[in-house]
């Protein structure tokens, strides 16, 4: 009997790419479902090396050559033998061993290396197997995997569509309305968990990953200052980064603050959205915005109780972050597009600008059920300035159905994004 599994958009593409005769490197933050994704694709006779296990990590740290000996000890067969190394970044020497094995015989093994941080690899100059590897990234759930309960009008086009094709054995994650999305985020384990457990799971994620995992990855001297930085960075998530303010409030130097932000990116728990610069305006701000990769993790890291009541105390900024993160995940999976924001010193702002090969798509996010002409002012000016490059602008909000605010500005329900 075949048991159904939760649908992941990247699963079919990942399994197809695994058939290519290269080393496969899968990165992503912890608890995004990397091991589950790989295990669904592994043959029964695969060799699995789990470097999250202290015993295996100690063995291969002391004797990385043992990995090569074990691989060479596998029986030689017509089909490639799959070797899966989980948390491979823990021992950068594993990458050298994989290269030596792959170069010696490209048909004997199929290597899959999985990691939740690129920091140690980048800072040690680790061998990422150029010309020999495919890179893969896995992110928290998108709306294609974790749908809204509302049924959308099929005639309404998303400004940046990202559709799902379910197979016979897959099922979607539980459908959530907007408030639980803003409270608990989109990590697979959180979405699948009982509501009573979600807050504790998110707090554990912050304590065990954002804190303890960082401690293992780095040599941070002032741990208290780093924890203050984490809380401040989470609180300011979605805002233009003010390094000086974060430095003052956390009690660490400006260069250290910048290195901490880089650390969060290298561990895949944060990303930047750059400022849009291709505008005729002379007073544009150029500093990027920084976002945590998941609003549920952001809430817990900021010291907030992940709950719908806390969301309702100030829902607008969280709603804007959620929209930005959703678009960012789609762009990362699909490629070929870029994401920006625009803000001028006099207050003119566009929350998000998607740049595709053909056009610019400006998007404003409003916590309103009744969008008005006033909400379209910045979009109107941007479209006028960009001309044919920006044929349509969107207001993502909480209206029940799409509403044409002006000739080329459409208000879109969040669930139709």
Overall pLDDT confidence: 88
**How many helices in DSSP terms?**
16
Computed Rg: 23 Å
Helix content: 25-40%
**What percent of residues are in strands?**
15-25%
Describe the largest sheet: 6 strands, mixed
Spatial strand sequence of the major β-sheet: 10-11-12-13-15-14
Total number of beta strands: 15
Structural class of the secondary structure composition? alpha/beta
Number of domains: 2
The coarse silhouette is globular
Distance between the termini: 36 Å
> Would you identify the regions where 5 or more consecutive residues have pLDDT less than 50?
none
Describe the structure.
With 417 residues, this protein is of the alpha/beta class. It has two domains: 5-137, P-loop containing nucleotide triphosphate hydrolases (Rossmann fold, 3-Layer(aba) Sandwich), CATH 3.40.50; 170-416, no CATH class. It has 16 helices and 15 strands. The protein has a six-stranded mixed beta sheet with strand order 10-11-12-13-15-14, sandwiched between helices. Strands 3-4-5-2-6 form a five-stranded parallel beta sheet, sandwiched between helices. It has a two-stranded parallel ribbon with strand order 1-7. The radius of gyration is 23 Å and the shape is globular. The two termini are 36 Å apart. The model has no long low-confidence stretch (mean pLDDT 88).
């Amino acid at each position: 009997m075949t048991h159904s599994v939760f649908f992941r958009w990247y699963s079919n593409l990942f399994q197809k790419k695994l058939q290519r005769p290269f080393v496969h490197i899968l990165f992503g933050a912890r608890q995004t479902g990397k091991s589950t994704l790989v295990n669904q694709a592994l043959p029964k006779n695969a060799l699995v090396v789990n470097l999250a296990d202290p015993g295996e990590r100690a063995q291969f740290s002391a004797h990385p050559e043992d990995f090569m000996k074990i691989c060479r000890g596998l029986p030689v067969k017509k089909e490639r033998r799959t070797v899966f190394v989980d948390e491979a970044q823990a021992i950068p020497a594993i990458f050298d061993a994989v290269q030596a094995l792959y170069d010696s015989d490209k048909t004997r093994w199929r290597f899959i290396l999985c990691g939740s941080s690129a920091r140690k690899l980048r800072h040690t100059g680790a061998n990422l197997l150029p010309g020999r590897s495919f890179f893969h990234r896995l992110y928290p759930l998108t709306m294609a995997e974790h749908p809204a309960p509302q049924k959308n009008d099929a005639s309404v086009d998303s400004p940046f569509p990202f559709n799902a094709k379910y197979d016979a054995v897959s099922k979607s994650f539980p459908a959530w309305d907007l408030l639980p999305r803003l409270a608990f985020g989109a990590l697979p384990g959180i979405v699948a968990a009982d509501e009573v457990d979600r807050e504790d799971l998110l707090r554990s994620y912050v304590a065990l990953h954002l804190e303890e995992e960082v401690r293992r990855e780095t040599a941070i001297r002032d741990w208290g200052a780093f924890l203050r930085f984490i809380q401040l960075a989470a609180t300011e998530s979605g805002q233009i980064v003010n390094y000086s303010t974060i430095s003052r409030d956390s009690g660490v130097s400006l260069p250290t603050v910048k290195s901490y932000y880089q650390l969060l990116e290298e561990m895949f728990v944060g990303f930047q959205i750059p400022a849009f610069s291709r505008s005729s305006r002379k007073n544009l701000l150029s500093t990027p915005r920084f976002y945590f990769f998941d609003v549920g993790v952001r809430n817990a890291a900021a010291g907030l109780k992940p709950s719908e009541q806390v969301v309702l105390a100030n829902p607008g900024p969280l709603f804007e972050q959620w929209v930005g993160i959703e678009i960012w995940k789609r762009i990362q999976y699909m490629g070929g597009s870029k994401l920006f924001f625009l803000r001028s010193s006099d207050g003119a702002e566009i929350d998000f600008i998607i740049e595709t090969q053909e056009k610019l798509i400006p998007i404003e996010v409003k916590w309103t059920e009744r969008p008005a002409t006033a909400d379209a002012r910045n979009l109107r000016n941007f479209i006028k300035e960009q001309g044919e490059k920006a044929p349509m602008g969107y207001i993502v909000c909480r209206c029940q159905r799409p509403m044409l605010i002006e000739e080329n500005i459409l208000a879109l329900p969040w669930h139709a994004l």
